[in-house]
Every structure is written in structure tokens, then in C-alpha cells.
Specification:
34% of the residues lie in helices and 34% in strands. With 177 residues, the chain is of the alpha+beta class.
């Protein structure tokens, strides 16, 4: 067999092991001491299993007599389990205008609350149209009100900044202690 890469670790198997001697562990986990690599391969063959190098950086390298297919399967299962436990944080976007009505503001506020409670980050975009851009203070006041209304459940990662005709800020869930 050739070198196989699994989870950023390389396992050399059977004839791919190049060291003349190895520190051997048998299939039951019992240490066998330092053994010639040919003797170790013969023991593995007798047991109907593979000789797998598990710690190549050690002197001499550490090898185990195990079923290589079973090792690959267990590593694949561990990787899948770790991936399943990860929480993916999404960035949701909410768009506003400076002349938003009170009811529309409350709807946007409730949407932002829902997104933050789900553990997602929220990008709030305030778009200016036409002459609205000459009254940036109205947009700053609106986003300030939004920050104040959400201070219990969210924190402001990047405060409102003007980029072209839009004012953008990022909010993320408040870390509870």
C-alpha cells in the first residue's frame, strides 16, 4: 500500500514503512517493544491485520497491528461527528431607508432580533436615495436608535460608516456569561 492522508495525518501501511526497527503495539494494545520491521510485518500477516505507522516522528517510529480499513472508518466517523457539532454562523442582511415608517421599523427590528437569537450576524444597510444623502444625520440617528433598541441581545461589531450611498453596520449576538 502507499501513503494515505487522512485528517492531515499520514499513515504508512505495511511495505510503505521505511524504518529498519519500530516500537510495536499488538492488536490488543499491549506493547511488544522495539522489533525489526520485517518481524512486525510477519506478526501482522499472521494475525490477518495490517502494520500501521501511527507516530512517524518518534525514534523509532511507533507502529500498531490493526485493521487499516477499520482505522479509516473510525477516523471518518470522528470527522463526521465533529462536523455535525459545528455551528455555522450566517450573515443576514436587513435593508432600511432613512424615511422608514414606525411600523416598518418595528418589523425590521423584530427580524433582526430573530436573526440574532438564532446566533447569526446581521448586516444592517441603510440606503440613501437622491437628496437624502445630504441629511446623513437622519441615517445616523436611525442606526443609533437601532443599536439602542438591540443593546440587550446584540452588540455592534462595526459602527455605522458611509460607503457610497449606503451606511453599513454589523451586529452580532451578545455573548452571555
Amino acid at each position: 500500500m502507499e501513503d494515505v492522508k487522512i485528517d492531515q495525518e499520514k499513515y504508512r501501511v505495511n511495505k510503505a514503512i521505511t524504518a529498519p526497527q519500530v516500537r510495536l503495539t499488538d492488536q490488543n494494545g499491549n506493547p511488544m517493544g522495539i522489533v525489526d520491521v520485517r518481524d512486525a510485518m510477519a506478526m501482522a500477516r499472521e494475525a490477518g491485520l495490517d502494520l500501521v505507522e501511527v507516530a512517524a516522528q518518534a525514534v523509532p517510529p511507533v507502529c500498531r497491528i490493526i485493521d487499516y480499513g477499520k482505522l479509516k472508518y473510525e477516523l471518518q466517523k470522528k470527522k463526521a461527528e465533529a462536523k455535525k457539532k459545528q455551528k455555522v454562523i450566517e450573515v443576514k442582511e436587513v435593508k432600511l431607508t432613512p424615511v422608514i415608517g414606525e411600523h416598518d421599523y418595528q418589523i425590521k427590528l423584530s427580524n433582526i432580533c430573530r436573526f440574532v437569537k438564532e446566533g447569526n450576524k446581521v448586516k444592517v444597510t441603510l440606503r440613501f436615495r437622491g437628496r437624502e444623502l445630504s441629511h446623513k444625520e437622519i441615517g445616523e440617528k436611525l442606526l443609533g436608535r437601532l443599536i439602542e433598541d438591540l443593546k440587550e441581545i446584540a452588540k455592534c461589531d462595526s459602527f455605522p460608516k458611509l460607503e457610497g450611498k449606503q451606511m453599513i453596520m454589523m451586529m452580532s449576538p451578545q455573548i452571555s456569561k
